[in-house]
Amino acid sequence: MPSMRRPGFPIIAAVLASWLASWLAWGTAVGAEQGARPAGSSYVGRQVCAGCHAKEAQAWRGSHHDLAMQEPTAATVLGDFGNATFSHRGVVSRFFKRGDTFYVNTDGADGKPADFPIKYVFGVTPLQQYLVEFPGGRLQALSIAWDSRPSAAGGQRWFHLLAGERIGHKDPLHWTGRYQNWNLQCAECHSTGLRKGYDAATDSYRTNWRELNVSCEACHGPGSRHAEWAKTAGKPYRADDDKGFAFPTASRWREAWRFPEPGARYARRDRPADPAVNNTCAACHARRGTLAERDQPGAPLADTHRLALLSPPSYYADGQQREEVYVWGSYLQSRMFQQGVTCMDCHEPHTAKPRAAGNALCTRCHDAAAFDSPQHHFHKAETAGAQCVACHMPTTNYMVIDARHDHSLRVPRPDLARELGSPDACTQCHAGKKPAWAAVALDGWYGKGWRQRPSIGPALHAGMTQGAMAVPGLLALAQSGAQPPLVRATAARMLVPHMRAPLLTTARELLHDADPEVRIAALEMIEPADPANRVRAAGPLLGDPVRGVRIEAARVLAGIAEAQMPEAQREAYRRALGEYIEVQRQDADWPNANTNLGNLYLRQGRFDEAVAAYRRALKLDPLFASAWVNLADAWRTQGHEKEVEATLREGLAKLPRSADLLHALGLAQVRRGDKAAALKSLAEAARLAPERSRYAYVWAVALHSAGRPGEALAALREADRRHPYDVTLLGTLISMERETGDARAALGHARQLAEALPDDPRVQALVAELSRGR
User: Fold this and answer.
1) Does the pLDDT of residue 486 top 50, yes or no?
2) Which of 615, 517, 474, 59 is closest to 306 using CA atoms?
3) What does the alpha-carbon distance between residue 319 and residue 398 come to, in Å, rounded to a whole number?
4) In 3D, which of 634, 693, 636, 716 has the Cα closest to residue 669?
């Protein structure tokens, strides 16, 4: 992301500046739990596995995992390649065969039609995609896919995955572009033992895999140690016998769950499953970024991947899925997860199908008499509305036709849907009805007590919309032992923009948390602190057993001289920083990884390397706005203002409506004294990105400094309307209103500030002062 910087115009002497930047000293540094990785193993292939596990191998055949990726044959290709044509926004594509080879004639990387042979088929149902081989080891996924559903369901047709967009051949989202590249986007989870093999020097791939599809060792890990163990092992096995695997994968799904007594509403697990059971599924069923190639399924996700938190646009404010989040982040919010349910308690891992059909799956643990009855769901038995998933796992279509169930398994809250802007399961089925109608219906069925059920939605929604007023609610979520760790980590990250002295104790406590995602979020909370406090807080986590935590600690400390760190931590810092750099280099085919490296080098004073990293990001994606802004900022740090403006104008030639670039250009124009041009650029940035309160704030300050206080106040008041309880906006409004003699307006805004910061004595003193002057 673009680095935050102060506007170049003279800033009003803000009454509240001191407590916007105050930090207190930290207490005792945190420790980190220790752990060791088991000895490695090598891949042996599914044929070796099937020799002893024939039943499991047979169940796997024909599963979505088996059919994740295949070579194209008459049996595997589902689409119509009988000279079928498909037209999309002026491009006519034709699907045909020459001998045994399947082809598509469509627009290529130069925009001209050409014949492309199909190298692999990708997936099976409800759609199938097709991969084309390009120079440099690339496999590109066609944006035209085959709808493999039956004709009666609307299938057996070609369709475009980006039907609502015009994607030209120069766009990175074009099927020949970087973001439709299999090696970059898809390969890790559709093959076994994959090595991406990206070479940054040539921007090419030598990708290879142990098996083309998702086979045994994708979930169990490399099997050589297990195969050796099996040669001599015999029953009864020792309880501590790892059977040659790094992590256990048995869920004990059949015997683990029992109803504790007759008439009990819920079954209980006899003992917690090993976390590895769920972690096995996590890496490929989560919205996440990659930290390391993963050969040991079952390890904590944060050791190999960076999980997306419950933030927009991926999720709605109440945590429901919005964009495609691949199940894991939803499931981590659920009561099922908190009660110990594993993925394999519900899904047979070899067939990848549910263990029972319909409500029978749920009534294995939920008493059928209590829950699978009209007295509970108030729908006619055996109808769609009587299905548990209809209310508790509503679907959202991704890739146009792929309906995915939301695995947060939440109780519907139509009373909150309008307030939060989130979907309502009831009116998803009852088309034409409003959530308020559904809420009244639930009142009639259950009374109004259901409206009092706790929900994370109001607190997270406030975190997105209510500025500093959201802090108490976010603080309560972050500290709540009753909340899932993912919710707590999300709340902690939302607290970052509001960090003040009273929140430092919370950050320190969260650095001790058992969950790595919470520790990572807590590290983000302490990043704005001064170097001494950052070292004291983050230093111990440089040795964290989870890779994601220790590299985040290194990132937070980057740029601080090693001499400011305790001598005992310096070697751990170097190792963790090396890991962070390796993560970015491994993902060097992603523009953002190169920008991350540039940001790191700039913090370390390595200017030439930072510029090279930003330029490489732009070579990969010339439309990556953050790289343009950060490259310009690198020039600014060296005092090269001509290069700053030239860089920003070059970016704007490609992205003329980029608010980030226009805002940065406005600041550059301020620095060279062209206030008229700066006002125009800053105004346009604020107009294009009304969700960015800082852009409105900087524009207003610029107007004020240009001698246009009335317009400045109007801009600030409009921004305050959009972003209530934004401390910076309120503080600036108070200062400007006092300056213009509008004491009544200043008092009103001071009272709003006091609502947002009720424990700050300086705000209370300000309110008292303004009240006396009325």
Assistant:
1) yes
2) 517
3) 17
4) 636
Distance of CA 739 to CAs 104, 244, 510, 748, 753, Å?
Answer: 68, 74, 42, 15, 18
Find, among 41, 432, 397, 42, the residue nearest to 210 by Cα: 42
pLDDT tens digits for range 94-104: 999 999 999 99
Contact 518, 492 (CB under 8 A): yes
Contact 468, 757 (CB under 8 A): yes
Task: Name residue, tokens 């607290």.
Answer: 495
Pairing of strands 257-258, 69-70: unpaired
User: In order of start, what are the domains of the chain with their CATH numbers?
Assistant: 69-190 (no CATH), 249-411 (no CATH), 693-774 (1.25.40.10)
Q: Within 13 Å, how many C-alpha atoms sit on residue 660's CB side?
A: 18
User: In this predicted structure, what is the pLDDT of residue 250?
Assistant: 86
Q: How many CB atoms lie within 10 A of CB 481?
A: 5
Bridge partners (DSSP) of residue 257 are 269
Kindly tell me the burial class for residue 277, based on how many C-beta atoms sit within 10 Å of its own C-beta (0-12, 13-18, 19 or more).
Answer: buried
CA 581, 583, 585, 588 dihedral sign is: negative
- Could you tell me the pTM of the whole model? 0.92
For the stretch 49-86, pLDDT in tens is 999 999 999 999 999 999 999 999 999 999 999 999 99
Residue 508 contacts residue 26 (beta carbons within 8 Å): yes
To the nearest 10°, report the CA torsion of 280, 284, 287, 291. 80
Burial of 1 (0-12, 13-18, 19+ CB in 10 A): exposed
Beta strands in 173-287 (DSSP E): 198-199, 204-205, 257-258, 268-269
Q: 74-88, 225-239, 654-668, 691-705: which has the minimum mean pLDDT?
A: 225-239
Q: Are 770 and 753 in contact (CB under 8 A)?
A: no
Closest residue by Cα to residue 464 from 723, 290, 267, 281:
723
On whether the CB atoms of residues 88 and 134 are closer than 8 A, the answer is no
Q: What is the DSSP letter of 3?
A: P
Q: ∠ CA 607-608-609 to the nearest 5 degrees?
A: 90
The b-or-e profile of 740-774 (16+ CB within 10 A means b, else e) is eeeeebbbebbebbbebbeebeebeebbeebeeee
Closest by alpha carbon to 410, among 489, 528, 296, 331? Answer: 331
d(CA 611, CA 609): 5
Classify strands 113-122 and 69-70 as parallel, antiparallel or unpaired.
antiparallel
**Chain position carrying tokens 């751990």:** 572
Number of H helices, E strands in the chain: 39, 17
Of 497, 484, 428, the residue nearest 456 (C-alpha): 484
Provide the 8-state DSSP code for 319: S
With bands split at pLDDT 50, 70 and 90, how would you rate the model's confidence at 240? confident
Task: Provide the token pair at 265.
Answer: 């509403």
d(CA 364, CA 376) in angstroms, rounded, equals 17
Q: Please provide the distance, in angstroms rounded to a whole number, between the alpha carbons at the two ends of the chain.
A: 44
Question: Is-cis flag, bond preceding 117, omega within 30?
Answer: no
Q: Encoding tokens for residue 662?
A: 């226009």
pLDDT at 11 over 60: no
Exposure string over 536-564, b if 16+ CB within 10 A, otherwise e: bbbbbbbbbebbbbbbbbbbbbbebeeee
Return left, alpha or beta for 111; rule: phi > 0 is left, psi -120 to 50 is alpha, else beta.
left
Cα gap 509→729, rounded to integer Å: 30
* 405 sits in which H/E element: strand 402-405
- In terms of Cβ atoms closer than 10 Å to its own Cβ (0-12, 13-18, 19+), residue 300 is buried
With pLDDT > 70 as the criterion, what percentage of the chain qualifies? 95
Q: 3-class DSSP state for residue 87?
A: strand
Given a contact cutoff of 8 angstroms between Cβ atoms, the answer to whether 107 and 170 are in contact is no
In 638-674, alpha helices (H) = 641-654, 659-671
Length of the chain measured in residues: 774
